[in-house]
Amino acid sequence: MKLIHMADLHLDAKMETGLTAARARERRAELLTTFCRAIDAGKEQGAVAVLLAGDLFDTDRVSESTRRSVGDVICEHPSLHFFYVAGNHDASVAPLFPGDVPPANWTAFGGEGWGSVVMDGIRISATPDIDRPGIYDELPIAAPGEFHIVMLHGQIVRTGAGGGERIPLRLLQNRGIDYLALGHEHAHRCESLDARGQWAYAGCPEGRGFDECGQKGYILLDTDAPLDARVTFCPVAKRTLHLVEVDVSICETAGEIKACIQEAVEGIASEDMVKVVLTGGISPDLILDTVYLSKLLSERFYFSRLSDETRLAIRPEDYATDVSLKGEFIRTVMASRLSEEQKQRTILCGLRALRGEEVDV
């Protein structure tokens, strides 16, 4: 049997990445369409069920249209059975279905303790109640021959106790689990649980900020495949987020910096979102026009951001005998009791002022 494992969609999230209001609305809509696209793709791959491992929504204040859209997707796929366990973001979401009457293909695990159902030889057990003492002692036991899937939302910890959002791995090992379907981490991860099973985070299907870069998607779980071939990660995101560091230490001109940036982002799709971070030491005489560079990026990508984390590469000996105003200024600042960060900032602002440029204060 094949199943889709998804988590952390965070539908109706604010999308606070510096987007305009219009782009933020567009990205919220794309989260929903990515959910639909993943369901359709998994169904084409032969999936018969969907494991939604929490944080389907971002908060408990979910728009009526979003809730109804999710409910419609579920109702429009009666051949897929949806299994859902709430995450820390969506524990009190309003009803998804008209009249709060769920369809036959929807199972939500809630309340206290474990829920457990069997479908065609697959036992699926889940609880949102992971912080209750002794909860793992009550884990349902699969019957002989059953493939046991356990759904939880929280942070795996290898040592220590559970509680809060922590899931102690040691309390789930050697408990007859074939697949531990997890939500909470936004990057895909799959590792061995014990000799019998695996645990995996599907990650979020769409990155929302630049702490969620890289490929995003869902897991296709094949319960009939050998242990090392059960899990297939399937990218599905509308847009990929990229964090690109560009060391400009070797650059001597603004043109060389521009060329380094262009080379670093070569091959990234125009519909993606990119944050470029400039690093390294640059000469005090090099004019770094971040407004111009930001404009170049914004014209190439759906969304871009430029962050200047360069430092001034200053050798005091180069200015020891410089009788110019610049030389006197740099010597004075370097000899001061300012911190290194304050010296860098002061010299940068001073040199900009000497060149007649605008100074950020």
Keywords:
361 residues, six-stranded mixed beta sheet, alpha/beta, single chain, 6 helices
Can you describe this structure?
- The chain contains six helices and 19 strands.
- The chain has 361 residues and is of the alpha/beta class.
- The strands form five sheets. Strands 4-3-2-1-13-14 form a six-stranded mixed sheet, with helices on one face. The chain has a six-stranded mixed sheet with strand order 5-6-7-10-12-11, with no helix packed on it. It has a three-stranded parallel sheet with strand order 15-16-18, with helices on one face.
- Helix 2 (64-75) links the parallel strand 2 (47-52) and strand 3.
- Helix 5 (325-334) runs antiparallel to helix 6.
- The radius of gyration is 26 Å and the shape is elongated.
Strand and helix map with partners:
Blueprint: E1 2-6, H1 21-44, E2 47-52, H2 64-75, E3 81-85, E4 106-109, E5 115-119, E6 122-126, E7 147-153, E8 155-157, E9 166-168, E10 179-183, E11 189-192, E12 198-201, E13 217-222, E14 231-235, E15 241-247, H3 254-264, E16 273-279, E17 281-282, H4 290-300, E18 303-308, E19 311-312, H5 325-334, H6 340-354
Parallel strand pairs: 1-2, 2-3, 3-4, 6-7, 7-10, 8-9, 10-12, 15-16, 16-18, 17-19
Antiparallel strand pairs: 1-13, 5-6, 11-12, 13-14
Short description:
This protein has 361 residues and is α/β, with parallel strands linked by helices. It contains six helices and 19 strands. It has helices at 21-44, 64-75, 254-264, 290-300, 325-334, 340-354; strands at residues 2-6, 47-52, 81-85, 106-109, 115-119, 122-126, 147-153, 155-157, 166-168, 179-183, 189-192, 198-201, 217-222, 231-235, 241-247, 273-279, 281-282, 303-308, 311-312.
